[in-house]
Amino acid sequence: MTTIAFLGLGAMGIRMAKHLIDAGHDIAVWNRTASTAAPLIDAGARRAETPREAAKGADIAIAVVRDNDASEHVWLNPETGALAGMDKGALAIECSTVTPDHIAMLSTTMETAGVSLVDAPIAGSRPQAEAGQLVFLISGTDDAMAGATPVLETIGSKAVPVGPSGHAAALKLANNALLGIQVAAMAELLPMMRKSGLDLERCIAILEASPILSGFAAMASRGMIAGNVPPMFPIDLLRKDGGYVTEIASKAGQSLPMTTRMNQTLDEAISGGLGDENFTSLIKHFQQQ
User: Which pTM value belongs to this model?
Assistant: First the structure.
């Protein structure tokens, strides 16, 4: 049995933590809104008032929060942050979608305190989290990744090594930009195809059978056609990730016109009141034009 602190109980975190409880681990949980933890407390977890309290005596601390700022607060706040409660030799796993620069800062700070860090962003959404089928992209030292893998494979289906610290964070952001570009393109094209009198379901089946359309984009397209937009990945979070991608490119002296245009489209959708809706709600933005 491993003692684990789980920090952040949003739509993903609460499902991930439940798998660890079910596996018999000793789990302390913290969330900014304390009442969210109630189902996990009922299942056997311990509630902590702060990340520091949750991490005290833990072998591993795992965080799943919104962005760089939330991650820094959870880990490094001098009074309440998890790092202040962690023992030397403990392992920190950052599952949030954050930037490589943020991971570099965390890694350096934690190394000074004798704590190892693995960045382990998540490939998957709420259905995969519920089913224990998440895939984790992991990077860090070999020893740290070896320590993180058994716990992550309790939560998901596999942990895929990417490279040195920060590489997993960079790949996850590229993945999300690619997702957004594909879905924005289909959201733009589907209304045109409908106005042309095409049978959209049949067209998606034809495109999916070709090398052109990915399975994920086909699934998202069917959801848009049916008007089925369950809350899995809100538009405002996708925009956050798109902003991180262009920020990384800008620092490297690169321009990313496709990602920039995607960000502009997301901004327009958010201005139209769609920010809290699933990314497939982008079709509503184009239908309004």
Answer: 0.95
